[in-house]
């Protein structure tokens, strides 16, 4: 009989990878896992209680907040506040950073950036949604944490992950030493290791993009989409188009099966739509650690220096060969000089 390894056991086993942390990072990851289980419970019964629909408020992005969005945000912040390992939370749902000022957090060393409920437009139609999180070490040493502690390059992340609330609930995370996935076993209420050492195939046959906005895309992206749709037996084209409107769901599928996720700039979003700090950076870190590539079309995502909390970015990430082919079309269109060999390979 195969022994079951829980998230808590796995984190403790890997604690030696971070001798400077003295257990704080492990406890922080545990706190995020506990909050994810609470949110999962509410997601699974959302249709049975008064938690669906609009909360009547707007977040800083000007997007209507769903009631479940607000609930998830509260749960993660509460868990991080009570855990004592986090000094700042940067959330998609809050205009400003949430500074945790309590006796147990006075020596906290970590910053958490989080999208509490990614894909919330799918809540009412029962399509998979998720949580995305990113963890940094505080850089300043005295006084109140600074905004510069939050606005670090993505390559400075010490951990990142996502939770997908779907037909099963999974937590996938990395601490810079590979990617591991854990599936929630509802019978025991624990995340159990189900996908050790996840690796994205170097090639794939899935492309994920909102083709309804095709007319607004840069020419290089249009050319790549046409390439994906062409019939070519040697390369296995046409590729399959899969897009749900939930970044977590689309990237999770592509991570397992191989594929590329595209969210370019457009006439409606000239700087891109997805947020760099709590969407693009954590997903880029995960994909690189799994052997994939993540770029904004010109720069490696993890090398971009954020200049404000809710900064937006274009993003293309996925299987190495698919991103390399996209890069050829972007370069040919004059948009970019990006080269696949500029990306640091994952272990």
Description:
The chain is 28% helix and 23% strand. The protein is built from 8 helices and 17 strands. The chain has an 8-stranded mixed β-sheet, with helices on both faces. Strands 12-11-13-17-15 form a 5-stranded mixed β-sheet, sandwiched between helices. It has a two-stranded antiparallel ribbon with strand order 1-2. Helix 1 runs antiparallel to helix 2, helix 2 (24-44) runs antiparallel to helix 3 (67-83) and helix 5 (219-229) packs across helix 8.
Topology:
Layout: H1 7-13, H2 24-44, E1 54-58, E2 64-66, H3 67-83, E3 86-91, E4 98-99, E5 110-118, E6 129-137, H4 147-150, E7 159-165, E8 169-174, E9 179-185, E10 190-195, E11 206-208, H5 219-229, E12 240-241, H6 247-257, E13 260-263, E14 274-275, H7 276-289, E15 293-295, E16 312-313, E17 315-318, H8 320-332
Parallel strand pairs: 3-5, 11-12, 11-13
Antiparallel strand pairs: 1-2, 3-4, 5-6, 6-7, 7-8, 8-9, 9-10, 13-17, 14-16, 15-17
Helix pairs in contact: 1-2, 2-3, 5-8
Output mean pLDDT.
Answer: 88
Number of domains: 2
Q: Report the biggest beta sheet as strand number plus sense, adding barrel if it closes.
A: 8 strands, mixed
State the end-to-end distance.
31 Å
Rounded Rg: 20 Å
What is the name of the CATH architecture of the largest domain?
A: 2-Layer Sandwich
Helicity level: 25-40%
CATH topology of the largest domain: Fructose-1,6-Bisphosphatase, Chain A, domain 1
Helix tally? Answer: 8
Low-confidence stretches: 337-347
As laid out across the biggest beta sheet, the strand order is 4-3-5-6-7-8-9-10
| Coarse structural class | alpha+beta
